[in-house]
Predict the structure.
Amino acid sequence: MPALTLRRAANRLRRAGPPHQRDLPAGASISLASLRARLDPESRKTKWAVHPDGVLGRALVCEAGAASTVVLRLTGIVGLTARAMLLPHDWRDLDGAMRAWVAVTDAHGRRQELWGGELEASDRSHPRGHAVSIQIPADSTTLTLGVTPLHTASASPLHRAIFLEPTIIDPHAPAPTPPPPQRPALAPPPAEDPLISVLVPVHDPSLHMLEEAITSVCTQTFPHWQLCLVDDGCTHPEIIAALTHHAAADPRIHLTRHTHAQGISAATNAALATATGTYIALLDHDDTLTPDALQHVADHIAAQPDLDMIYTDEDVVADDGSFQRHIKPGWSPEHMSALMYTCHLGVYRRSLTQELGGFQSRYDGCQDYDFVLRLSERTDRIAHIPRILYHWRAHAASTAGGDQAKPYAYLAQPGAITDHLDRSRVEADVQFGQLAGLHRIVHRVDSGMGVDLVLAVDAAEGLAEAAASWAAQPHPTWSVVLAAPPEVLDAAVAALTEAGIPASRITPVPAPAGASSAGLASAAAAATAEQFLLMQTPAIGLTRDWLTRLIGYSQQPQIAAAGPIVLGPDGRIQQAGIALPTGVPLHLRHGATAAAALPVVYNVSAVSGILATRSDTYHRVGGLDPAGNDLALIDYCLRATTTGQRVVVVPDARLRTSGPDATVNDLATIWRLRETWIHTHTHDPYYNPNYRPDRGDFVLRRY
């Protein structure tokens, strides 16, 4: 969080008075939105929202009688700041009052209310609500924010309230260690701006869209461009005349004519043949560039002159002026193999494009997808500019307008992906996904590949149901390595055998109680299979081939870990990958419904809860660090990625935990993880910086 926000939060605490509102020194802050809530019945009527009814900031919306609870482990007193208030339309249109409150419980179950305040509806003036600025005792194990309705006879009573920007201030958090000083590098001699050739194949677009496309290039703030137009058998006289006019008006515009249409790949190759720039940029004849698009690209090239590919964010603009943003992750190879996500604007080194043979007509409609897949086999010097620099026009004849416009483009994609996998020596089949343009890469897995399901438990409850689902999945060669306290171990093994797992498949490991990461590390030390499935809590398989899907990815040498979507008992997401935009782990989509999960494989910085990994990777990076507590799997993934491997989430592999979310928000462990990784995760490569860094739900920042 910015220093100014920290100072403001600390000042709010200093202005507060007794009994729980005494001075507290400034420290690190963490939004409650980025912590894991406990998924229990009383939390179901709460949700995190942004800008509800015009209220700025992130807000915890609580319906009447609801509360949201987070489980904490503290090393000392921390502060909580927030504002409790009504939503604007509610205080204006409804009647009555509500009581907002904040309470904690300790390890003995003793409850203590730390703050309470009434919120009353009024049509006379805007109720400002209450500033909450309190201290949370060090022995608190849960923190609960709730709303209680007050009696009213009104036919339209208040039914919800919000806690705006609730934030914990931890004065015990260590300040991040500054990076070691580096010897300043000698500044390279200034390089000339590269010439960027913009390739535009043209075949009978609407005249006004073509004019806007050409004008968007001619009015670039970056002057070193070349526009390579190809008339691919246009039949409309006004289009032919417009192309002729523009080519005669500016020597930077080159026009090639085809007497008959040869297709988009052939036309793009013809434009490529006339290009002289160091880089080429692809522009469709009915789309536009932002005025500064090529300048941002040139700035990126100046900073990284060896780049072979640059792609940017984009938006899709409909005829009525409405638009939809495409906010993209950094370079994500596994995501790319299942979805053409880089799209526009795409900029490529011209010499490499020519070496690759340009674009292939047999993949017309998805020729750019095939091209990027082939390019990615030759280079990883690929950069993402997280700015919307391209406006993709959605209309009846455009793929941006829907999958009915050019169905052949989607039908050709599996062939391009299959060719890519074959060239990469990846044995897999390509299936269509849930939506047009999404694909399911089904790796072939040797039925003899051994897998150890590695887990640690403190009780036998829930094991039998989970184990029965393990036995039902089709991969035949697996065993269970189970760590548990000695007094629980026999009952846990009995639960597995009662579920149908032969005793010969079970390796029991005594472990101390209450130390799940230490127990999991002990179990992993006893595992011997080629693949490990590390499971922080017993989970029930929901999809038939969940294990095969995970080890299909984790067997790939470039993949360090593969995680599934893990749901809680109520069907909401507990685990869907981890982002670390500021060194603090964000649980992606946490608390959302299962339908909110991205329906195609995607790259992430880490996964938690459950992951598949090869045993050689596990031992090479030093296994689990028991000091990582609930974050041990996250720390493992981050260490593994330092070897050049990647982490993926496989969303069609789904499991459900058999009990409530047992994760504890251990602030000391969170700060320790931040201290370890803040310098390598000053931003997350897969979590676009345009998203809020304090939430994992892909909500855009508001500047």
